[in-house]
Amino acid sequence: MSTEESAPYGGASAPAAPSVKRVRTHHLREWKETGEKFTMLTSYDLMTARIWDEAGIDTILVGDSGGNTVLGYSSTVPVTLDEMIVMARGVVRGAKRALVIGDLPFGTYQASPEQAYHSAARLMKEAEVAAVKLEGGVDMAPQIQKLTRGGIPVCAHIGFTPQSEHTLGGYRVQGRGAGAEGVLQDARAVQDAGAFAVVLEMVPGDVATEVTKELAIPTIGIGAGSETDGQVLVWQDAFGLNTGRVPRFVKRYADVNSVLLDGARTYVSEVKDGSFPAPEHTF
Protein backbone atom coordinates (compact mmCIF):
# COMPACT_ATOMS: atom_id res chain seq x y z
CA MET A 1 0.00 0.00 0.00
CA SER A 2 1.27 3.49 -0.81
CA THR A 3 2.03 5.92 1.99
CA GLU A 4 1.29 9.56 2.63
CA GLU A 5 4.13 12.11 2.75
CA SER A 6 6.66 11.60 5.50
CA ALA A 7 5.58 12.19 9.07
CA PRO A 8 7.05 15.21 10.91
CA TYR A 9 9.97 15.04 13.35
CA GLY A 10 11.49 12.02 11.67
CA GLY A 11 8.64 9.66 12.59
CA ALA A 12 7.69 6.74 10.39
CA SER A 13 5.10 7.38 7.70
CA ALA A 14 1.62 6.07 8.39
CA PRO A 15 -0.03 3.82 5.82
CA ALA A 16 -2.52 5.65 3.66
CA ALA A 17 -6.17 5.00 4.27
CA PRO A 18 -7.85 2.83 1.64
CA SER A 19 -9.15 4.94 -1.26
CA VAL A 20 -12.79 4.77 -0.21
CA LYS A 21 -14.81 7.96 0.18
CA ARG A 22 -17.31 6.37 2.58
CA VAL A 23 -16.74 2.97 4.12
CA ARG A 24 -19.68 0.61 3.70
CA THR A 25 -20.28 -2.89 5.02
CA HIS A 26 -19.38 -4.43 1.67
CA HIS A 27 -15.93 -2.85 1.80
CA LEU A 28 -15.10 -4.90 4.91
CA ARG A 29 -16.06 -8.07 3.02
CA GLU A 30 -13.94 -7.00 0.06
CA TRP A 31 -10.96 -6.27 2.29
CA LYS A 32 -11.28 -9.70 3.87
CA GLU A 33 -11.29 -11.30 0.43
CA THR A 34 -8.14 -9.45 -0.61
CA GLY A 35 -6.41 -9.96 2.74
CA GLU A 36 -6.33 -6.26 3.66
CA LYS A 37 -6.64 -5.61 7.39
CA PHE A 38 -8.99 -2.90 8.59
CA THR A 39 -9.26 -0.82 11.76
CA MET A 40 -11.89 0.07 14.33
CA LEU A 41 -11.75 2.38 17.35
CA THR A 42 -14.44 3.42 19.76
CA SER A 43 -15.67 7.00 19.86
CA TYR A 44 -18.39 8.70 21.85
CA ASP A 45 -18.21 12.30 20.61
CA LEU A 46 -17.74 14.52 17.58
CA MET A 47 -14.14 15.59 18.23
CA THR A 48 -12.56 12.14 18.48
CA ALA A 49 -14.66 10.93 15.53
CA ARG A 50 -13.18 13.73 13.41
CA ILE A 51 -9.66 12.77 14.46
CA TRP A 52 -10.17 9.06 13.75
CA ASP A 53 -11.59 9.97 10.34
CA GLU A 54 -8.56 12.11 9.52
CA ALA A 55 -6.23 9.33 10.69
CA GLY A 56 -7.88 6.83 8.34
CA ILE A 57 -9.70 4.65 10.86
CA ASP A 58 -12.06 2.52 8.80
CA THR A 59 -14.86 1.82 11.28
CA ILE A 60 -15.94 3.59 14.45
CA LEU A 61 -17.83 1.81 17.20
CA VAL A 62 -20.04 3.89 19.45
CA GLY A 63 -19.72 1.27 22.15
CA ASP A 64 -21.73 0.82 25.29
CA SER A 65 -18.25 0.98 26.82
CA GLY A 66 -19.12 4.67 26.95
CA GLY A 67 -20.96 3.70 30.10
CA ASN A 68 -17.56 3.16 31.72
CA THR A 69 -15.41 5.68 29.89
CA VAL A 70 -17.86 8.59 29.58
CA LEU A 71 -20.64 8.12 32.12
CA GLY A 72 -18.65 6.53 34.94
CA TYR A 73 -20.70 3.35 35.39
CA SER A 74 -18.99 0.30 36.85
CA SER A 75 -20.09 -1.83 33.88
CA THR A 76 -21.94 -1.52 30.59
CA VAL A 77 -25.17 -2.90 32.05
CA PRO A 78 -26.74 0.43 33.19
CA VAL A 79 -26.36 2.11 29.77
CA THR A 80 -29.67 3.13 28.21
CA LEU A 81 -30.69 3.39 24.59
CA ASP A 82 -31.27 7.13 25.02
CA GLU A 83 -27.68 7.55 26.22
CA MET A 84 -26.38 5.56 23.26
CA ILE A 85 -28.36 7.72 20.85
CA VAL A 86 -26.95 10.95 22.29
CA MET A 87 -23.34 9.71 22.05
CA ALA A 88 -23.85 8.28 18.57
CA ARG A 89 -25.32 11.51 17.20
CA GLY A 90 -22.08 13.35 17.82
CA VAL A 91 -19.93 10.60 16.34
CA VAL A 92 -22.00 10.42 13.15
CA ARG A 93 -21.68 14.18 12.69
CA GLY A 94 -17.92 13.96 13.07
CA ALA A 95 -17.21 10.98 10.82
CA LYS A 96 -17.38 11.60 7.08
CA ARG A 97 -15.55 8.46 5.89
CA ALA A 98 -15.63 5.82 8.61
CA LEU A 99 -18.45 3.31 8.96
CA VAL A 100 -20.20 4.17 12.24
CA ILE A 101 -21.69 1.28 14.21
CA GLY A 102 -23.81 1.79 17.32
CA ASP A 103 -24.12 -0.67 20.21
CA LEU A 104 -27.50 -1.91 21.36
CA PRO A 105 -27.30 -1.72 25.17
CA PHE A 106 -28.29 -4.40 27.64
CA GLY A 107 -32.01 -5.07 27.88
CA THR A 108 -32.93 -3.47 24.55
CA TYR A 109 -32.85 -6.54 22.30
CA GLN A 110 -32.63 -9.78 24.29
CA ALA A 111 -36.37 -10.19 24.97
CA SER A 112 -37.46 -10.76 21.38
CA PRO A 113 -36.65 -10.06 17.74
CA GLU A 114 -39.40 -7.44 17.77
CA GLN A 115 -37.83 -5.62 20.73
CA ALA A 116 -34.47 -5.75 18.97
CA TYR A 117 -35.94 -4.28 15.80
CA HIS A 118 -37.64 -1.37 17.55
CA SER A 119 -34.45 -0.56 19.48
CA ALA A 120 -32.21 -0.80 16.43
CA ALA A 121 -34.61 1.28 14.35
CA ARG A 122 -34.47 4.05 16.97
CA LEU A 123 -30.67 3.99 16.98
CA MET A 124 -30.53 4.23 13.18
CA LYS A 125 -33.30 6.83 12.80
CA GLU A 126 -32.41 9.11 15.72
CA ALA A 127 -28.61 8.85 15.59
CA GLU A 128 -28.19 7.91 11.92
CA VAL A 129 -25.63 5.18 12.54
CA ALA A 130 -24.96 2.94 9.54
CA ALA A 131 -25.25 -0.34 11.47
CA VAL A 132 -25.81 -1.76 14.94
CA LYS A 133 -23.90 -4.24 17.09
CA LEU A 134 -25.37 -6.73 19.51
CA GLU A 135 -23.88 -9.40 21.75
CA GLY A 136 -24.61 -13.10 21.49
CA GLY A 137 -24.30 -16.02 19.11
CA VAL A 138 -26.70 -18.90 18.61
CA ASP A 139 -29.20 -17.41 21.07
CA MET A 140 -29.32 -14.09 19.22
CA ALA A 141 -29.62 -15.52 15.70
CA PRO A 142 -33.38 -14.81 15.54
CA GLN A 143 -32.76 -11.16 16.46
CA ILE A 144 -30.02 -10.81 13.85
CA GLN A 145 -32.23 -12.38 11.21
CA LYS A 146 -35.11 -10.04 12.07
CA LEU A 147 -32.91 -6.96 11.84
CA THR A 148 -31.15 -7.87 8.61
CA ARG A 149 -34.39 -8.82 6.90
CA GLY A 150 -35.75 -5.46 8.01
CA GLY A 151 -32.90 -3.52 6.42
CA ILE A 152 -30.68 -3.03 9.47
CA PRO A 153 -27.04 -4.16 9.09
CA VAL A 154 -25.81 -6.11 12.13
CA CYS A 155 -22.32 -6.63 13.50
CA ALA A 156 -22.40 -9.56 15.93
CA HIS A 157 -20.24 -9.89 19.06
CA ILE A 158 -19.22 -13.27 20.51
CA GLY A 159 -16.61 -14.72 22.84
CA PHE A 160 -16.51 -12.60 25.97
CA THR A 161 -19.61 -10.43 25.93
CA PRO A 162 -19.38 -7.62 28.52
CA GLN A 163 -23.14 -7.28 29.00
CA SER A 164 -23.11 -10.87 30.29
CA GLU A 165 -20.17 -10.46 32.65
CA HIS A 166 -22.25 -11.47 35.68
CA THR A 167 -23.37 -14.67 33.94
CA LEU A 168 -19.86 -15.44 32.70
CA GLY A 169 -18.31 -14.90 36.12
CA GLY A 170 -16.34 -11.77 35.30
CA TYR A 171 -13.86 -10.88 32.60
CA ARG A 172 -12.71 -14.31 31.48
CA VAL A 173 -11.31 -15.65 28.23
CA GLN A 174 -13.94 -17.62 26.29
CA GLY A 175 -13.34 -20.61 24.02
CA ARG A 176 -10.52 -22.44 25.71
CA GLY A 177 -10.43 -26.22 25.41
CA ALA A 178 -13.86 -27.72 24.87
CA GLY A 179 -15.32 -24.20 24.76
CA ALA A 180 -13.77 -23.64 21.33
CA GLU A 181 -16.60 -25.49 19.62
CA GLY A 182 -19.12 -23.18 21.26
CA VAL A 183 -17.37 -20.13 19.79
CA LEU A 184 -17.38 -21.76 16.36
CA GLN A 185 -21.07 -22.57 16.64
CA ASP A 186 -21.84 -18.98 17.62
CA ALA A 187 -19.78 -17.68 14.69
CA ARG A 188 -21.57 -19.90 12.19
CA ALA A 189 -24.95 -18.96 13.63
CA VAL A 190 -24.47 -15.20 13.37
CA GLN A 191 -23.15 -15.51 9.82
CA ASP A 192 -26.08 -17.70 8.77
CA ALA A 193 -28.48 -15.19 10.39
CA GLY A 194 -27.12 -12.40 8.19
CA ALA A 195 -24.51 -10.51 10.24
CA PHE A 196 -22.06 -8.61 8.03
CA ALA A 197 -19.20 -8.99 10.54
CA VAL A 198 -18.48 -10.42 13.98
CA VAL A 199 -16.40 -9.15 16.89
CA LEU A 200 -14.37 -11.83 18.69
CA GLU A 201 -13.49 -10.67 22.20
CA MET A 202 -11.02 -12.42 24.52
CA VAL A 203 -10.89 -15.59 22.42
CA PRO A 204 -7.70 -17.67 22.16
CA GLY A 205 -5.71 -16.77 19.07
CA ASP A 206 -5.87 -20.23 17.54
CA VAL A 207 -9.66 -20.31 17.90
CA ALA A 208 -10.01 -16.83 16.40
CA THR A 209 -7.80 -17.91 13.51
CA GLU A 210 -10.01 -20.93 12.84
CA VAL A 211 -13.15 -18.81 12.95
CA THR A 212 -11.60 -16.24 10.59
CA LYS A 213 -10.63 -18.91 8.08
CA GLU A 214 -14.02 -20.60 8.17
CA LEU A 215 -16.27 -17.55 7.93
CA ALA A 216 -16.99 -15.62 4.76
CA ILE A 217 -17.83 -12.51 6.82
CA PRO A 218 -15.03 -10.43 8.39
CA THR A 219 -13.90 -10.98 11.97
CA ILE A 220 -12.85 -8.12 14.24
CA GLY A 221 -10.56 -9.03 17.11
CA ILE A 222 -10.13 -7.56 20.55
CA GLY A 223 -7.88 -9.79 22.58
CA ALA A 224 -8.18 -12.44 19.86
CA GLY A 225 -4.73 -12.47 18.29
CA SER A 226 -3.41 -11.10 15.01
CA GLU A 227 -5.17 -13.26 12.45
CA THR A 228 -8.61 -11.64 12.55
CA ASP A 229 -9.55 -9.47 9.58
CA GLY A 230 -9.77 -6.29 11.67
CA GLN A 231 -8.86 -5.01 15.12
CA VAL A 232 -10.74 -2.85 17.61
CA LEU A 233 -9.68 -1.10 20.82
CA VAL A 234 -11.34 1.26 23.27
CA TRP A 235 -9.65 4.55 22.52
CA GLN A 236 -9.13 5.64 26.13
CA ASP A 237 -7.19 2.41 26.72
CA ALA A 238 -5.17 2.62 23.51
CA PHE A 239 -4.16 6.26 23.94
CA GLY A 240 -3.55 6.37 27.67
CA LEU A 241 -6.46 8.46 28.91
CA ASN A 242 -7.36 5.53 31.14
CA THR A 243 -4.60 5.40 33.76
CA GLY A 244 -6.05 2.42 35.58
CA ARG A 245 -5.67 -1.26 34.87
CA VAL A 246 -6.17 -2.18 31.22
CA PRO A 247 -6.55 -5.64 29.66
CA ARG A 248 -3.47 -7.56 28.58
CA PHE A 249 -4.42 -7.20 24.90
CA VAL A 250 -4.23 -3.40 24.96
CA LYS A 251 -1.23 -1.62 23.46
CA ARG A 252 -0.81 2.02 24.43
CA TYR A 253 -0.07 4.19 21.41
CA ALA A 254 -0.03 7.56 23.20
CA ASP A 255 -0.18 9.12 26.67
CA VAL A 256 -3.08 11.54 26.35
CA ASN A 257 -3.56 11.68 30.12
CA SER A 258 -0.11 13.21 30.67
CA VAL A 259 -0.59 15.76 27.90
CA LEU A 260 -3.93 16.91 29.33
CA LEU A 261 -2.63 16.88 32.90
CA ASP A 262 0.40 18.99 32.00
CA GLY A 263 -1.75 21.43 30.07
CA ALA A 264 -4.26 21.77 32.89
CA ARG A 265 -1.52 22.32 35.47
CA THR A 266 0.07 25.02 33.31
CA TYR A 267 -3.32 26.72 32.93
CA VAL A 268 -3.86 26.68 36.69
CA SER A 269 -0.40 28.12 37.28
CA GLU A 270 -0.78 30.92 34.75
CA VAL A 271 -4.20 31.98 36.01
CA LYS A 272 -2.91 31.98 39.59
CA ASP A 273 0.18 34.07 38.78
CA GLY A 274 -1.69 36.44 36.47
CA SER A 275 0.22 35.63 33.27
CA PHE A 276 -3.01 34.49 31.59
CA PRO A 277 -4.81 36.16 30.01
CA ALA A 278 -2.00 38.24 28.48
CA PRO A 279 -2.59 41.39 26.39
CA GLU A 280 -2.85 39.29 23.20
CA HIS A 281 -5.77 37.38 24.73
CA THR A 282 -7.66 40.53 25.66
CA PHE A 283 -10.04 42.60 23.51
UniProtKB/TrEMBL annotation:
Binding annotation for 3-methyl-2-oxobutanoate: D64, S65, D103, K133
Organism of this sequence: Nocardioides terrae
Pathway stated in the Swiss-Prot or TrEMBL entry: Cofactor biosynthesis; (R)-pantothenate biosynthesis; (R)-pantoate from 3-methyl-2-oxobutanoate: step 1/2
Residues of the active site: E201
Swiss-Prot/TrEMBL catalytic activity: (6R)-5,10-methylene-5,6,7,8-tetrahydrofolate + 3-methyl-2-oxobutanoate + H2O = 2-dehydropantoate + (6S)-5,6,7,8-tetrahydrofolate
Family: Belongs to the PanB family.
NCBIfam families reported in the protein's UniProt record: panB, PRK00311.1
Binding site for Mg(2+): D64, D103, E135
Segments of this protein annotated with the region Disordered: 1-22
Listed Low complexity bias regions: 1-19
Recorded GO CC terms: cytoplasm
Protein name per Swiss-Prot or TrEMBL: 3-methyl-2-oxobutanoate hydroxymethyltransferase
Names of the cofactor(s): Mg(2+)
Claim: Ion transport is one of the keywords in the record: no
Pfam families on file: Pantoate_transf
Broad class of where this protein is predominantly found: cytoplasm
Top enzyme class: transferase
Keyword Cytoplasm in record: yes
Name of the gene encoding the protein in the UniProt record: panB
Alphabetized UniProt keyword annotations: Cytoplasm, Magnesium, Metal-binding, Methyltransferase, Pantothenate biosynthesis, Transferase
Gene Ontology biological process terms from the UniProt entry: methylation; pantothenate biosynthetic process
Protein purpose: Catalyzes the reversible reaction in which hydroxymethyl group from 5,10-methylenetetrahydrofolate is transferred onto alpha-ketoisovalerate to form ketopantoate.
EC annotation from Swiss-Prot or TrEMBL: 2.1.2.11
Gene3D superfamilies: Phosphoenolpyruvate-binding domains
GO molecular function: 3-methyl-2-oxobutanoate hydroxymethyltransferase activity; magnesium ion binding; methyltransferase activity
Subcellular location: Cytoplasm
